[in-house]
Here is the input.
Amino acid sequence: MKRHGHNAPQRRPNKSRDVDTSQCHEGLVVSTHGRHVVVESADGERLICHPRGKKSEAVVGDRVHWQHTLEGGDEGLIVQVQERRNLLYRQDEWRSKSFAANLDQMLMWIAVEPVFSEAQLTRALLAAKSADIPATIVLNKVDLPGAPSARERLAPYKAMGYPVVELSLKSDTAVAREQVMPLLEGKATLVLGPSGSGKSTLINTLLPHARAEVGEISQALNSGRHTTTTSLWYWLDDNHHSAIIDSPGFQEFGLHHIAPTDLARWMPDIAAHMNDCRFHNCTHRQEPGCAVQAAVERGEISPIRLSLYTDLFDELSRPRW
Here is the structure.
């Protein structure tokens, strides 16, 4: 994988540095299915691997050391997960779970219709920002009548410095493809989008054989018995320089690794004013002399963004059992 000057700090170093990996192969985790993962070896072969202990810590994008479970067998055992440059979490009903690692960027794929959720968008951008992963917003279906309204809602994000790309994948596929391909070149890109936004159309356009690939994995895992898939890694080129990671559905990002008092600094519009508050520990909610509240009143921060911040602050402040 080519790297383009992105030197994110390494996170979550592996605790098992003393593990003997001299007899191991190196590989890339390309999909996860419950406790099982599919690892791509250096020569491009893919095989099912199992975690060494009861808990599987490997996620899509991880570089791992693995070995065959049996001499000449077609399954493997993960011996060690190598250090990660970054890590993203998803949120289920009870806890945060890691689901993708070592990403170069995130593509937030939303559409004019169905109307996108700013709460979901904000969570995704927060997760990326806190993991030091650059994010680009792609607005699809700009040929539809609601495009001006969608642009207006995205104006604060453009003002924060997030790139916003507009296209119409279905009505103008060739042009849209020309817009998207340069964004993906030489990078490992997580593509996220809510149902109906056209993300599946993107995958099918760029990777016409993707469905067959998923089918083959399901077959290898006993006809779908263990195929609860969190993410899938696809190479876009034969040289394996560019890849997209597709996560089915829209991940509800887990943000509980962020302290509520750190939340403001990961929201660029709020972070721009937070150091001007009267109190250094201002939570930007009801304190006197709050520069963030003043910026909202002046129209420099969208009231919706402050409301999203407040809701997230409350969520992250609640005790978790």
Notes: Residues 141 and 261 are 37 Å apart (CA to CA). Helices lie at 118-130, 147-159, 173-184, 199-206, 210-220, 268-274, 291-297, 303-317. The two ends are 40 Å apart (CA to CA). The chain has a mean pLDDT of 86.
